[in-house]
Amino acid sequence: MTFTTRFRMGAAALVAAGALATAAPAFGQTPAPTTDPTAPTKLTDLKARADEAVKDRLSAIDTLTGRINGAGADCGQNADVAGQLASDRSGLQSLDATIQAETDGHKAVAEYKQIFTDFRIYWLQTPKTHDVVACDRMSKADATLTSLRQKIQARVDEAKAKGYDVSAAQAALDDMGTKLTAATSSAGQASSSVADLQPDKGNQTVLQSNLTALQSGRQDLHTAWSDLQTARHDARTAIDDLKNLHKS
Amino acid sequence: MVASRTLRPLALTAAAGLLLTGAACNGRLARRASQSQTPATAVTTVVTPAAPTAAAPPGQAVRTDDLDAGLQQADTQLSQTSGAINDADQPSQQNSD
């Protein structure tokens, strides 16, 4: 093997690895909240900072709500999470009003912390909503592939009736059905396991439990996505088999 | 005098005949008019065209072009799914809370 040949093979391997890396979504760790922001010592500064923090979160809530409303499908948790976000919105607005009217510095500091610990908009509600929407999208793709599978099955049956050997196409279709069922199950598990996670309110045990649940939900999404891709590959295989059938 | 006596019944008979004929014609015309005003009862016969036979292209056992189209539709859905999963995998823009 010449150096040029080795170089070409190495380059091809790098290109293939790069293509796979960009095609497959990455599943990273869910970042844990480090430390909640410290309240400013001056009451006027605290109030200004609190108002800004609340407005940022209200904007994020609107974005998340838009994601759910535009999901185009529902794994079953959309109304639940949308309701939580609506409740968060009114709760944050109420808390901001309380802080702006506060005259007691100690109470203001405690109320300021609640903006973070009692809502967890960025750390909890955002990944939770993304998981639920990902499940919604998966269920839509799953339904499309299920419909396609039924059409392919009809053609397999037709070819079989004409005397063709459809064993390979049928095997691919059987696997496709199995993978679609598994994908539905994993995606549903991902969505339902995170939908009702509650803000930790400063409780480290709850915080760690939420972290674990989010991570597990992410893994379930990964599994469902892998199954969906396999189901898609099975569909391609079955269609190609139908194109190349020979009389048995 | 005799002639007028003779002709009078004939005239009466002719007049009665004309009246009867007129009534009969008017009845027929009235029926025609009423028929033209009454909307005809719609008898719609739906002829369902037979589903086009999916002819297999030459050299193939069955038709597959629509299956390819279905797979393309699924690919669009999968692309959107991939985007949603990438969103779910993004670290929160602020990890402090």
Provide the descriptors you would attach to this structure in a database record.
heterodimer; A: 248 residues; mainly alpha; 7 helices; elongated; disordered N terminus; B: 97 residues; 2 helices; rod-shaped
Secondary structure: elements and pairs:
The complex is a heterodimer of chains A (248) and B (97).
Chain A: H1 3-23, H2 43-69, H3 78-100, H4 105-117, H5 121-161, H6 167-195, H7 204-243
Helix pairs in contact in A: 2-3, 2-4, 2-5, 3-4, 3-5, 5-6, 5-7, 6-7
Chain B: H1 2-37, H2 65-89
Q: Can you describe this structure?
A:
The complex is a heterodimer of chains A (248) and B (97). Chain A is 78% helix and 0% strand. With 248 residues, chain A is mainly α. Chain A has one domain. Chain A starts with a helix and ends in a 5-residue tail after the last helix. Chain B has a domain at 2-37 and 57-86. Chain B has two helices and no strands. Chain B starts with a helix and ends in an 8-residue tail after the last helix. Mean pLDDT of chain B is 63; it is low at 10-27 and 29-53. Chain A binds chain B through residues 25-28, 30-37, 67, 115-117, 120-123, 126-127, 130-131, 133-134, 136-138, 140-141, 144-145, 147-148, 151-152, 155, 158-159, 162, 164, 218, 221-222, 225, 228-229, 232, 235-236, 239, 242-243, 245, and chain B through 60-64, 66-68, 70-71, 73-75, 77-78, 80-97.
